[in-house]
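Researcher: Please generate the 3D structure of the following complex. Treat every line as part of one assembly.
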Amino acid sequence: MFKKILYPTDFSDASKKALGYVKQLREAGAKEVIVLHVIDDRKIPGFIGPDEGAPVSGMQVEKMITMMEEDAEKETRATEAELKKSGFDVRVRIEKGIPFRDILRIEEEEEVSVIVVGSHGKGVVKEMLLGSVSEKVIRKSKKPVLVIKG
Amino acid sequence: MFKKILYPTDFSDASKKALGYVKQLREAGAKEVIVLHVIDDRKIPGFIGPDEGAPVSGMQVEKMITMMEEDAEKETRATEAELKKSGFDVRVRIEKGIPFRDILRIEEEEEVSVIVVGSHGKGVVKEMLLGSVSEKVIRKSKKPVLVIKG
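Model: Done. Output below.
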């Protein structure tokens, strides 16, 4: 029932809290964890368009993407090490796209048993921007979802 | 983390599926389960008002409530027996009210560790009427929620 866990993380406190629950599920038969981070395409300046703020050169955009990728790499590797220490088989996936869509796509691709996801309990605007990722995942996922409040 | 589980049930297939996950959490340290059924006040004809359909006498309403209570009693006791067999301490609570509100009230009252709830994957209208119970619980709960799709 909990054999293969999909753990999407945006490295927030809510995601980190959710990691504790992932570990606890080891005792309930969880064996494998897919650690997923989706770099949100929409946060990359080129996608917003040149009208917003100072014009962004292609080179600046490239540099920003590289930084986001390096951050993601570092954070997910730390999580991987932590989960391996708890006895899990771990795989890391870093994707670029729209978080809730990629989470749902990988849920299907990987045929996971359960999704464990943190949810931001922030203000209304942040909630609309961020909290909605977990809401959309819960609404559309075919598999059980364990939601941890931040 | 999973010590005390609140398991709200409306006796649907989704709720029954969720029960399997409750049992599985035994291995992850779950010890106690509160089995909760909320008799939905709004389904009792007197609450809809005398304009809808044939007039309902006070005696008919009384009879209907008694039937709902007897059903709830029977179903929850069966669940209680099943969970006890799995080694849980179990308490049954039957309430009358608005399901999501009572679920959230009892979550606080009982200081549970996690809520395990089934979610109906039905058509749009049913979704609005029924599925929204789990959505509201997820949105407003302070504790982790494990959502099982029907």
